[in-house]
Amino acid sequence: MRTLVCSKCGSTLKVEYSDQVPPSGIRLPLHNPSASITLGEGNTPIVELPQSGHITGLDRLFAKLEFANPTGSYKDRGSAVMMSAAVEYGATEIVEDSSGNAGASVSAYAARAGIQAHIFAPESAPPAKLQQISVYGAKLHPVPGPRAAATTSARTFVKEKNLIYLSHTLSPFFTEGIKSFSYEVATQMCNDLPDHVVFPVGNGSLFIGAFKGFEELVKQGRMPRIPRLHIVQSTSVMPVVSAIKNEPWSLDMADHTVAGGISVVDPPHIHRMGPIVEATGGDAVAVSDESIVRWQKILAEKEGVFAEPTSSAAFAGLESLIQRESIGRDDTVLVPVTGFGLKDAPPH
């Protein structure tokens, strides 16, 4: 639980199971899954988006409404497993850093588990997200400066207080929890499985966790193949896209973006994402803030789906992927709406 990276190479850790994947059902890294911490996360709806499909030229465009999770984002899938593991290891007080959604999610599941949480977040994070962190009883530590400053402050606090750093960006338990997304897709879309899934990517936990879930489903014979998995980032912060495209990127190139949830300048899993894109035949694109805000309005006004800017970035990317012919107009496409719009109000 206290070890989050390899002591030799510094890479993030992965969970491996000693026995084979079961013929059906999801495998999780818990000794007693029946006693896991839960708030009823998962089983989020998949809805068709006919108007957005018309705009992009797609006949079959679907959204998985991940904001229907208990705290309003997909992060609850990972927090449930990560906090369950924390309970099994006897944790009573933990530290996390977040741009908002993960902090709120970890706070809620910590409250459910009876664990005291310390959440370090940029003081510039959306007020609604900071308020949500506090309402669950977590101790909020606002940090001036960029998102990376919150990580630095959290790690310093962990060393000073000798606490457990339960980082959702590094924890393999969190990534394992995300697999449920893929298992639900296989069940809900069994008669029309997606050809493509388009993800907004910051740290990449949803992208990597979904891939692992799809990989398991193919091994179980429940899916014929893994969908093509695509990455979308903001042109203001695009380290993953730059790495995949072999384009220059440095921390001083980062700028402010409305999509705060994917504003990650140095993602720890960057080495894992390019191979997934290549293995699945996916692509990676970056989009402007203007297109992100445009798609936030389209989703709300045409579909009744109020997505936070991070989520609408994926739809802006979808439009670009179609224009690049990385996605065909006859293909079935799924986009996760990762967080609810009230968490991050649109600019006026």
Helix/strand layout:
Blueprint (H helix, E strand, L loop, with lengths): L45 E3 L1 H7 L3 E6 L9 H14 L4 E5 L3 H13 L2 E7 L4 H9 L3 E5 L3 H15 L2 E2 L6 H7 L1 H9 L7 E5 L4 H15 L8 E7 L4 H6 L25 H11 L3 E4 L1 H15 L5 H15 L8 E6 L11
Parallel strand pairs: 2-10, 3-4, 3-6, 4-5, 7-8, 7-10, 8-9
Antiparallel strand pairs: 1-2
Helix pairs in contact: 2-3, 2-6, 3-4, 6-8, 7-8, 11-12
Outline the structure in words.
There is one protein chain. With 348 residues, the protein is α/β, with parallel strands linked by helices. It has 2 domains: 46-73 and 175-343, Rossmann fold, CATH 3.40.50.1100; 75-172, Rossmann fold (3-Layer(aba) Sandwich), CATH 3.40.50. It is 39% helix and 14% strand. The chain contains 12 helices and 10 strands. It has helices spanning 50-56, 75-88, 101-113, 127-135, 147-161, 172-178, 180-188, 205-219, 239-244, 270-280, 289-303, 309-323; strands spanning 46-48, 60-65, 93-97, 116-122, 139-143, 164-165, 196-200, 228-234, 284-287, 332-337. Strand 3, helix 3 and strand 4 form a beta-alpha-beta unit. It is globular and about 55 Å long. It starts with 45 loop residues before the first strand and ends in an 11-residue tail after the last strand.
